[in-house]
Design a protein that fits this description.
The protein is mainly α. The chain has helices at 8-16, 19-39, 48-62, 67-87, 89-94, 103-127, 132-140, 145-154, 159-183, 189-211, 213-241. The protein has two domains: 1-86, no CATH class; 88-242, no CATH class. The mean pLDDT is 82.
């Protein structure tokens, strides 16, 4: 029995021009990264976001797919970033009772982490002679990507570059955070979680949730408070520095 199926080349031409390919590629890369992460017994070096970024970057390079075309499909995932960030309020609410007696040290840690993140990035960038437009993006990257992109627009920085800086910061924090905290002998889950939330944003928070619920709740708190503080103060800091 003969069928009138189109040649595989025609199917590929159709798929390569469809936004659906970019969406499937993004979700598939993350699923593979998550699988490898679980099989490595949640080793931070096998971070699923890092693996997904490498796979997607290599794939679109091999397919010769322009970023604008890739984003046509990936924008559906991008749209959910804000929603996912807001939903982190749920574990914060559940763990609110455990904040008793810890508010002072958490506020101090929040300001110390936020100031260190912004000042260290600006100082290093200026020492290397990086263009001032890029430096503005490095200041905004101190908070989680959805908020950082909004700040970037206010301080006349590139939202795209700022998002790249923020995600890169989150990946590095999620991968190296465990080793840094171990070296500093930080053992309490709430301390480790809050540090990851402030320093490594959403990706660090995801890592914290994967190892312990208390660490995840405090990472959510740290990321959320850092985002609010950054949205309020970073534009004034940029106006002062520049």
């Amino acid at each position: 029995m003969r069928t009138n199926l189109p040649p595989i080349t025609e199917i590929w031409v159709y798929l390569s021009g469809s936004p659906l390919l970019a969406l499937v590629l993004t979700l598939g890369a993350y699923l593979l990264g998550l699988t490898l992460y679980e099989r490595s017994e949640r080793n931070p070096l096998a971070n699923p976001v890092l693996i997904a970024v490498i796979l997607v970057a290599c794939s679109i390079q091999w397919l010769d797919m322009p970023y604008t075309k890739y984003f046509e499909g990936a924008q559906f995932v991008h749209f959910l970033l804000g929603t996912a960030t807001v939903s982190l309020a749920i574990p914060i609410y559940k763990g609110f009772a455990s904040l008793k007696g810890r508010v002072g040290i958490l506020v101090l840690s929040l300001f110390a982490g936020g100031i260190t993140s912004a000042f260290s990035a600006v100082a290093m960038a200026r020492w290397l002679g990086i263009d001032e437009a890029l430096v503005r993006g490095l200041v905004a990257k101190s908070v989680t990507a959805p908020i950082a992109m909004g700040i970037a627009e206010r301080v006349q920085a590139s939202p795209t570059l700022t998002a790249i800086f923020a995600v890169s910061t989150g990946i590095l924090g999620a991968v190296l955070g465990r080793f840094v905290l171990d070296a500093l002998r930080v053992t309490q889950w709430w301390q480790r979680g809050f540090s990851l939330g402030v320093a490594a944003h959403g990706i660090g928070t995801s890592r914290a949730f994967s190892v312990h619920p208390e660490a995840g709740a405090y990472a959510s708190l740290g990321m959320g408070l850092h985002g609010i503080l950054g949205a309020a103060l970073i534009p004034y800091a940029v106006a002062w520095w520049f």
